[in-house]
């Protein structure tokens, strides 16, 4: 189950090709996959010793978007497209592969926030570059594990059935431990605030969407990352 869960999480959260990936127990491994994401982002951030901060921030964000296959940002855009659509067209907006005006605007805001947050964190809180991807994956796991899932979101329903309920709480513990190791009490507080605010966003989205789906999970991941980066920047 451990090996299956790890590779299932890798297949679910990245563009890495995994043959015959299993969904069984994958929620246990969202946070560990986030640690790998974060480690990769931090490794790229070390280029700041030779390159301008803005260029390094662009590289960090680009690498993460490429590894995820753009799926999380796509979910962020879809949620805002659904919010802007008339009630009778919300489901269609979620399912559409096209990005509307609201989604495009939200996408621009998210990418700008990630770039600015990363660039500033490189100077003031380098730990946030590593911690943000962990928080994002923990938030995604929480949506699948704890929130009401839409009946038409079959993939999330399957993921939930194949992982013990509460598995995402283990990820929250991993996030807390990583925060303390990387940035001490300040990082722990920022991660906690980021997850709390993301939880509020998810509750708001679930209320008018009738439950969570993959788009809501992806949007939660993007928001948690932004909040950790900006928390490290603002404090």
Task: Report a brief summary of the structure.
With 235 residues, the chain is mostly helical.
Describe what this molecule looks like in 3D:
- The mean pLDDT is 88.
- This protein has 235 residues and is mainly α.
- The N and C termini lie far apart (41 Å).
- Helix 4 (71-84) crosses helix 10 (214-234), helix 6 runs parallel beside helix 10 (214-234) and helix 7 (127-146) crosses helix 9.
- It has one domain (29-234).
- It is built from 10 helices and no strands.
Q: Over all CA atoms, what is the radius of gyration?
A: 17 Å
Broad shape: globular
Compute the number of strand runs: 0
Sheet with the most strands, sense and barrel status: none
Summed over residues and divided by their number, the pLDDT gives a mean of 88
Helix content: over 70%
Question: Which residue ranges are poorly predicted, with pLDDT under 50 across at least 5 consecutive positions?
Answer: none
The N- and C-terminal alpha carbons lie at a distance of 41 Å
> How large is the count of helical segments?
10
> What string, H for helix and E for strand, traces the elements in order?
HHHHHHHHHH
- SS class: mainly alpha
Beta-strand share of residues:
under 5%
- Quickly count the domains: 1
Set out the fold topology.
Layout: H1 2-13, H2 30-45, H3 53-68, H4 71-84, H5 90-95, H6 101-124, H7 127-146, H8 154-161, H9 167-209, H10 214-234
Helix pairs in contact: 2-3, 2-7, 2-9, 3-6, 4-6, 4-10, 6-10, 7-9, 7-10, 9-10
Supply the key terms:
235 residues, 77% helix
């Amino acid at each position: 189950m451990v090996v299956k869960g790890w590779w299932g999480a890798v297949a679910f959260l990245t563009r890495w090709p995994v043959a015959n990936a299993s969904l069984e127990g994958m929620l246990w491994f969202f946070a560990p996959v986030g640690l790998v994401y974060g480690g990769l982002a931090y490794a790229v951030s070390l280029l700041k010793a030779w390159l301008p901060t803005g260029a390094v921030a662009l590289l960090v964000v680009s690498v993460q978007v490429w590894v995820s296959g753009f799926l999380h940002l796509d979910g962020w855009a879809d949620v805002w497209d659904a919010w802007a659509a008339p009630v009778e067209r919300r489901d269609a907006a979620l399912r559409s592969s096209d990005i509307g005006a609201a989604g495009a605007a939200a996408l621009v805001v998210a990418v700008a926030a990630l770039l600015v947050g990363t660039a500033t964190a490189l100077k003031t809180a380098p730990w946030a570059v590593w911690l943000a991807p962990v928080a994002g994956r923990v938030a995604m796991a929480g949506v699948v594990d704890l929130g009401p899932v839409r009946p038409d979101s079959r993939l999330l329903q399957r993921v939930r059935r194949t992982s013990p309920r509460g598995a995402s709480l283990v990820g929250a513990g991993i996030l807390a431990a990583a925060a303390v190791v990387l940035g001490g009490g300040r990082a722990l507080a920022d991660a906690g605030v980021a997850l709390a605010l993301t939880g509020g966003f998810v509750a708001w989205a679930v209320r008018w969407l009738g439950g969570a789906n993959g788009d809501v999970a992806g949007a939660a991941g993007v928001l948690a990352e932004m909040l950790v980066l900006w928390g490290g920047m603002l404090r």
